[in-house]
Design goal:
Blueprint: E1 4-5, H1 19-34, E2 43-49, H2 56-59, H3 69-80, H4 90-94, E3 107-108, E4 116-119, E5 126-131, H5 162-172, E6 180-184, H6 190-203, E7 207-214, E8 217-224, H7 228-232, E9 246-254, H8 258-269, E10 276-278, E11 287-295, H9 299-304, E12 312-320, E13 331-342, H10 345-357, H11 376-384, H12 388-396, H13 405-417, H14 420-424, H15 432-447
Parallel strand pairs: 5-11
Antiparallel strand pairs: 1-3, 2-13, 4-13, 5-13, 6-8, 7-8, 9-11, 9-12, 10-11
Helix pairs in contact: 11-12, 12-15
């Protein structure tokens, strides 16, 4: 197949010395665009990718694109923040890094006249639907909850006061010295006591309950059945044998990656994140739909989260006997929006036909080569060559213009002393967990350069 030089089309924002000016121009275009409707400046492109993580469209997920309106303001605040602020965005860092031509992205598969546009200007411009191993595309289209005689009633979620829930959560997580929590039964009926028992056991896994008489009043006493082990292992004896151990559901999320979403769900359900499983992680800067499985959490509890979470929706519930495993999916279906297109309708149509009929060169995306002034492939090459001094310098040497504040001081200390411990002291305490890995790895390299396992 003949290829042609990349000189007439770009679906990515070009990298040049005028990037700052380009960014301002794009923002002005964006403001102008937001004031118009029904224009031809948008083009939807849909494609089914056989294998995940190999699509050019997906590999460009971190390209230099202005954020949404709320995120633009956040970026401006970062620029005005003190030197202990967060690191620069991918877009800012790439200004000091590689261009497409630096890594060999120079050819097109077709020779027609192309057009340029902006990919992923907004997170809603990138929509991902997971394709299961059976070839079914995941869609969130059913919010009904499977009926089960043993499921708690809806009253279960409202019978406990906020104060009761706070005390029970502290007891569940062993945050205080109390060995039990007593909840007074105001309306003393058997039905009311049953609802409170169900509420404690379903909302706070690991706790058991019993009824006691105290001074002529009825109390529900909540206590730990098996200490910390009960929190890690959901209550097996309360799960019906006829029901599958895993509740599978479809998760719709906006502008959050899969692990962040799992952590949020875990927090609201008061369980450990490791009881969730999934087939693949999905982008943060996107709208994504994927299947999730969770061990011994009822569909009713999961559906209740729809009332209290923003940018999340859960549905299509079913019970199965197996979890999900990474890599079990066929791929992902992408819907991509291109904005600020410069080209005629004929040029756009010709390009879309070429994409559909011929395809594209499946280059690695720019983010695969690193996001700062030191490309990661250079570090990898030095590791393979056993050149550990170069590895340490590439990781820690100063990167002019690519970083701010405390990271600059940290790298300057390394350049001056070659002492990772001294460089580590230049990091503020709140940043140690994020940035100390590079420095600790350098310490290991200095001690065990030959036996280091990559």
């Amino acid at each position: 197949m003949e290829t042609v030089e990349m000189n007439n089309i770009s679906l990515k924002r070009p990298h040049s010395e005028d990037d700052a000016a380009n960014a301002d121009e794009i923002k002005r275009q964006k403001i102008s665009e937001n004031s118009k409707t029904g224009s031809n400046s948008e083009q939807n492109v849909q494609t089914v990718i056989e294998q995940p993580d190999k699509s050019m469209l997906e590999d460009t997920k971190n390209e230099i694109i202005p954020n949404e309106e709320g995120e633009e303001q956040e970026d401006e605040e970062l620029e005005d923040s003190d030197e202990d602020g967060d690191p620069e965005s991918f877009a800012d860092m790439m200004k000091h890094g590689l261009t497409e031509s630096d890594v060999g992205i120079t050819k097109f598969v077709s020779c027609h006249k192309g057009f340029s546009g902006i990919l992923k200007e907004r997170y809603s411009d990138f929509v991902v639907h997971e394709i299961g191993k059976d070839g079914r595309v995941s869609h969130l289209d059913d919010f009904t909850v499977p009926v089960d005689d043993e499921d708690p009633s809806e009253e279960t979620f409202t019978v406990l006061s906020d104060e009761d829930k706070k005390r029970l959560e502290e007891l569940q997580l062993l945050k205080n010295k109390e060995t039990s929590v007593a909840i007074e039964v105001i309306e003393d009926t058997k039905e009311k006591r049953t609802v409170i028992h169900q509420a404690v056991k379903s909302l706070f896994p690991g706790l058991e309950t019993k009824t006691e008489d105290r001074d002529g009043k009825k109390y529900i006493i909540a206590y730990h059945a098996a200490g910390k082990k009960a929190l890690a292992n959901p209550r097996k004896h309360s799960w019906p044998k006829s029901r599958g151990s895993y509740c599978h559901f479809v998760l719709y999320k906006e502008n959050k990656d899969t692990m962040d979403a799992i952590n949020v769900l875990s927090k609201f359900l008061r369980v450990k994140p490791n009881i969730f499983s999934y087939m693949g992680t999905k982008d943060k800067r996107a709208i994504t739909v994927q299947e999730i499985a969770v061990l011994r959490i009822t569909a009713q509890r999961l559906a209740h989260l729809n009332k209290c979470l923003m940018n999340f929706k859960l549905g299509n519930f079913s019970y199965k006997n197996h979890p999900l495993k990474l890599g079990e999916l066929q791929g992902n279906h992408f819907t991509v929006v291109l904005r600020n297109i410069t080209g005629t309708d004929d040029q756009i149509e010709q390009a879309m036909n070429s994409l559909r009929e011929i395809g594209f060169i499946n280059y690695y995306g720019m983010q695969r080569f690193g996001t700062t002034a030191v490309p990661t492939y250079q570090i990898g090459r030095a590791i393979l060559q056993n050149n550990w001094n170069e590895v340490m310098d590439l990781i820690l040497k100063p990167r002019p213009g690519a970083e701010k504040g405390y990271l600059v001081k940290c790298r300057e200390e390394w350049a001056k002393t070659k002492d990772p411990a001294a460089a580590l002291k230049k990091l503020p305490v709140k940043r140690l967990a994020v940035y100390s890995m590079d420095l600790r790895m350098v310490q290991k390299i200095r001690v065990f350069p030959v036996g280091l396992k990559i």
